[in-house]
Design brief:
The protein has 106 residues and is an alpha+beta fold. It has one domain. It contains 5 helices and 5 strands. A 5-stranded antiparallel sheet has the order 4-3-2-1-5. It is globular, with a radius of gyration of 13 Å.
Length: 106
């Protein structure tokens, strides 16, 4: 089975959006399958990050996947992302898709 999140997306169409204070991560790609990521503390994801320090602009780069999910709160996700990484409560309640969330923020 292939990694469902291996194809790089644009910052305006991420797989998921996480937020921690003024820091926002748009997850654009993962390099490993979700099950493999859980076993590797050095697994990384390609993200577009935005904060006050970036003056409201996105900066692209790799970051540890566990840091995004540990420190950030999942606020929007595709159904596939929610199934792979969401908690049971998040799956039950549902979250907006990234497109719907970004539309509301505009």
């Amino acid at each position: 089975m292939a990694n469902p999140f291996a194809k790089t997306r644009q910052a305006s169409d991420p797989y998921a959006i996480y937020r921690a204070g003024d820091l926002t991560w748009h997850v654009l790609k993962t390099y490993k399958m979700p099950k493999s990521e859980a076993k590797d503390p050095y697994a990384r994801s390609l993200v577009a990050a935005k904060s006050d320090a970036t003056f409201g602009s996105f900066e692209l780069g790799d970051t540890y996947a566990r840091d995004v999910r540990s420190f950030g709160q999942l606020i929007a996700a595709t159904p596939a992302w929610l199934e792979a990484y969401g908690t049971a409560l998040q799956r039950q309640r549902g979250l907006p898709t990234p497109a719907a969330f970004l539309e509301l923020e505009a």
